[in-house]
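cache lookup: miss for this entity combination. No prior model stored, computing from scratch. Input as submitted by user K.M.:
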Amino acid sequence: MSSAQKLNAFLLPLSILSWLGLLACTLLYAHPTLLEPTVAVPNWLLLLMQAVFTATVFIQERSRSDRLRGLNFIGLLRQLVLGPGLLATACVGLHLLQQLIQNKLPSTGSLTYTVIYTVNVALFVVLLARTNYAWRSLVLFRSTNRLRSLWTWFEVLLGITLLLRLFTWTLPYELGTALLGVLAAFGAYISSHQKWVAYLNRHQKLEAVLLQLAVIIGMGVFVFYFLQAKHDPELVAPATQNAFLLLNAFFAGFYALMGLLVTFFNLPTAGVFEQKREEILKLQRLTQLIQRGQSSREIYQMFFESSVQTVDADAAWLELDPGTEEEYEGQYYHILPEQAQAIQHLLADYNLGHIEYLNNDLLNSSGFRNLNLAYGSLIVMPLRSSKRQYGALYMLKEPTQSFDRENLSILQTFASQTVLSIENLQLMQASLDTQRVQDELKIASAVQDSLIPKNLPIDNWFEISSHALAATEVGGDFYDFLHLPGRRLAVLIGDVSGKGVTAAFHVAQMKGIFHALMQENPLARNEREKFPVPSKFMAQANTALARCLEKAAFITASLYIIDYEHGGFVFARAGHCHTLYYHSIKEEVSYFRTAGLGLGIIRNEGYEKHIKNQFYDYNPGDVMVIYTDGIVEARGADQEEYGEDRLRQMLERTYYLDADEIKEQILTDLNEFSKGQPMHDDQTLLVIKFKASQPEPSV
Amino acid sequence: MKITQQSTENSLTLSLDGELDASSSVVLDTELSKPEILRNQKVLINCRQLNYISSAGLGVFISHLQRFQDAGVKLVFFNMQEKVHNVFEILGLDSLMTIVPSEAEATAI
């Protein structure tokens, strides 16, 4: 339980107890002979009881949560009227009951009178507290901090007045009156805060006037009752206790009266507020249309309908420029397309087509008179952004002088919102298209990734380590392995000129060619002709590519066929980067500088002359580094290329390591070199190390 | 990339200045695609200021090679920097195209 809840749990019994105390005191005060022996109740005790009761009721009401829910002012007032309405009815009912009893039983009359009076005091205090804090909700609605602190001061002053009632015999009459005056003035000032009235529409304002009248009447019933009681010959309580109640009633009634007047005088302007509200709502709806991602057709229609309604046009049409919209070509309202065309032609003749234009005296123009149309006013509102023109809205009214600056400015707002919506929609469409392309690229990337051999050939006669990184989603580098019968391994590496999807297509093509050409030829006359030698492979690949490779494109490739049973390999280089090689016997690192032309450069039989086979017998411990130009052409900080020399030096330093470690060292050095530089080209690196272990005898 | 042209009676010299990459090779391609270029006996490419050539740049020369040969126009490169020459060489283009060290040798051909 929070401290506020604890306080409340304590306050309710206290207020009931104090009221019972008040009842007892009042009874004894009015009828001192009620008990034996006679008890004289002092004034201050009675007043103290009333003060405690009033204070507890007010504090309880104060600590309640705000009764105002959002902008539901009418609900708040209804609650309030229902409360005091019932209380006032109860009060009047009790009063009538009392008179009835009094007439019949004059002897016990004064005792009943006292009880009913005390009950009425309680009812009035509850009513005042309710009204007071309902008014607080209204006064403090969207208020400043200053007003909040003023309100607190007002409460403090009220409390002091309550306390002063206890010592009233010591306070001079003039001072008391002055204090009351100050408090009343304070209350009047606070009553002038009626901000909430502006948030009501016409209907609500009327209802608010009636409800506030009801509050005043309810309050009036009580005040009338207490004023009557004051002059009653059978006065049951000291007159002073009335002052507090009356002061509070004055404030409550005054605020209701002020609210009533403000609401009443605001009634005629309610229409204007409602229209503005309607305009704002339409703008909001226009804005929401974008967020819901609806069609441009709906946005144009919304714009057209909102404009026609807001301006209350007699006729209107929306003309869209040709090619602006495929599914929507404008619309007409109470006008024939021919008439609309005639007016547009006339405007174009006056050089007024598609610009913002307001004419409130059409009949003054001979051109319009000749059209024989019964319209006196015209507004043209173009739909355009800084980039382009979409069309224009035309609105007509029969009387002259019927459009004003206000109409023009709201139409401007509508038009700019519409253009914004349309352009947002187009942007959204464009981004969706881009997203689709990106998604497809992702798929292409995944497909290409699946083309890269995942399982490297494993044998105890060599080690292979590979690395491939594409600069964009799809790359132009490729490599592949194929086991051939007789302990042979074919290794292909290459690079398609250009980047992106086209290059990726040719990569897939090259892989297809590789697997197709590396099939065993059943017609071969001897063992050697069963599989094409690398130069033959290149020539056949060149022929295959000649027809489908675009004019300026070419492919570089190297094919190695390693025969690890005999410890040798044969390769052909078709314009691809030179192979880097470590000779373990000579203890020397060098490039195989062989000649060879790229694929697709010469697309006829002449190609075969430009490609050669190279044979080499390797030794255990030899290392072969195969790569694409993305490695040697990687740029460093000063735009310098990584280069063949750096690569050679790296192998000189690392040749004794495992294939994996050699690859890692080269990549680390390369990444260090090109740190912070964008990656221009795909990078592929293969390291093959021939090992010392002896081959197992072939089966 | 800057391309300057110098025309004599029967030859045209194009001096390339800068990097011949994917975007600048489009400009070069436009120059080499002009029909009137085939009226020359020789088209000389001065590569002194050519610092870099990409595969797209090589592609431009490759795509026009056959057309020039068919029209009997000689395509001669001269003043080529070492690293650019290396690119031509790796691709095997040095065996297809005429690459000479100096302008004097280029005009003498």
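stored under new cache key. Helices of chain B lie at 24-33, 55-71, 82-91, 103-108.
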